[in-house]
Design a protein that fits this description.
The protein contains twelve helices and 18 strands. It is of the alpha/beta class and 403 residues long. Helix 6 runs parallel beside helix 7 and helix 8 runs parallel beside helix 9. The N and C termini lie far apart (58 Å).
């Protein structure tokens, strides 16, 4: 998207505002499917948690994607967006049996990641096939909060507990139709991913009724000019060769599944904010914007870096600024970052704001959550209204404290 378009959207819809470019989402989806076009059966399940707006889900549906969901609410969003139940996989962590039963009754693919629920579900519903999430004990990911396949992770059933899984399957006579793993996010070393895949292949040999193997996701996307990213094309060639070999060994054509979130939507997103104040202290120049970590928590939570561009003065002389928010806590988006000269009222664009930005937003400090706009077919579409004060108080109940 060009600067002129983003400025017009900020003018028309106000700031702060999230903007998503559908063309980029489509190109990322096509890039991933092309990388695995020599596998007979590939299924791309978009990870709803990255960006769950129904209009974005409808776009994914139009591309032929399935959905990866982690809550019953995400399942219902997928159904609302037009996905059939068989296109949705439900992979919760630490939820009650009751929630899993609700998902099963809706007809979606169940993915179980602990022995307790596996035994309870298999005993009660032996005729409903389930997938099992394996913990391969592989440390991968760009941050400890998003490394989920290591030995001390709360996610998945340990590969060392395969005998326990087989005992439960034998005792309940349940059917295991899929094996799944997810090692973490921001994975750069594809050899680590391929190593974990070998563990998954070895595990799959224990189950005779498999229909698919789900390799998760976690592909690294670039966050700044010249940044490194996962080489999807090379990874596609290597995993395709190994997967096709395994299918021959297994004696059946299985479906290769992925569940990308960030890879599909991160680079499609822009977060537009207005500079309220330019404040000089003894050693720092602050650009104070009309947002905070209530709208974009990733820099504080993960230490992530989002490229920031002054789209009101893109060709201006670069100076050093610390970009900070209006929250009543330290909420620093950038420290001493080179940005084109900033004047109060300028619009700053945060890039890579498509994944885990709005979906992690909150009403902290009783601030409103922003609007969302989808740029589709060269036209801006409002896909979520900006919140109002009525949204802040609508579920609050005032009681009579005089009694």
């Amino acid at each position: 998207m060009n600067t002129k378009t983003l400025l017009q959207i900020a003018k028309d819809y106000g700031s702060p505002v999230y903007v998503y470019d559908s063309e980029k989402i489509v190109s990322q989806y096509n890039r991933l499917t092309t990388a695995f076009n020599k596998v007979k059966q590939v299924k791309i399940n978009y990870a709803v948690k990255a960006l769950s707006n129904v209009s974005v889900l409808k776009l994914m549906h139009s591309l032929g994607a399935g959905l990866d969901t982690v809550s019953i609410q995400e399942v219902k969003l997928g159904l609302t967006a037009g996905f059939s139940a068989d296109k949705i996989i439900y992979t919760p962590n630490g939820v009650s049996l009751e929630e899993i039963e609700i998902a099963a009754n809706l007809g979606v693919q169940i993915n179980i990641d602990n022995l307790s629920i596996l035994e309870q579900f298999g005993t009660k519903y032996p005729n409903i096939p389930v997938c099992i999430r394996i913990n391969p004990h592989v440390m991968a990911g760009g941050n400890t909060n998003i490394s989920v396949g290591h030995i001390d992770s709360k996610f998945g059933i340990s590969i060392h507990q395969i005998p326990h899984i087989l005992r439960i399957v034998e005792n309940t006579q349940m059917t295991i139709n899929g094996i799944h793993m997810h090692t973490g996010s921001d994975i750069l070393d594809i050899d680590v991913f391929l190593y974990a895949s070998e563990i998954l292949f070895e595990t799959a040999k224990h189950f005779k009724d498999l229909e698919f193997i789900d390799f998760g996701s976690g592909f690294k996307v670039p966050y700044k000019e010249g940044d490194i990213e996962t080489n999807i094309e090379e990874f596609g060639k290597k995993l395709t060769k190994r997967f096709n070999e395994f299918c021959k060994e297994y004696g059946k054509e299985l479906t290769l599944a992925f569940e990308p979130g960030k890879f599909l939507v991160s680079e499609a997103g822009y977060f537009l904010t207005k500079v309220n104040v330019v404040k000089q202290t003894t050693s720092t120049v602050f650009a104070q914007i009309d947002s905070g970590f209530n709208h974009l928590i990733r820099p504080m939570f993960y230490g992530s870096q989002h490229e920031i561009e002054n789209i009101s003065n893109p060709k201006g002389r670069e100076r050093f600024y610390s970009v900070v928010g209006y929250i009543c806590e330290t909420d620093t988006f950038a420290n001493n970052r080179r940005i084109a000269e900033i004047t109060e009222g300028d619009i700053l664009a945060f890039k890579n704001a498509g994944a885990y930005c709005f979906s992690m937003a909150s009403n902290y400090n009783s601030r409103y959550r922003p609007a969302e706009v989808l740029w589709h077919n060269n036209q801006a579409h409002l896909i979520r209204k900006r919140e109002t004060f009525d949204d802040i108080i609508k579920n609050q109940i005032e009681i009579d404290l005089t009694k």
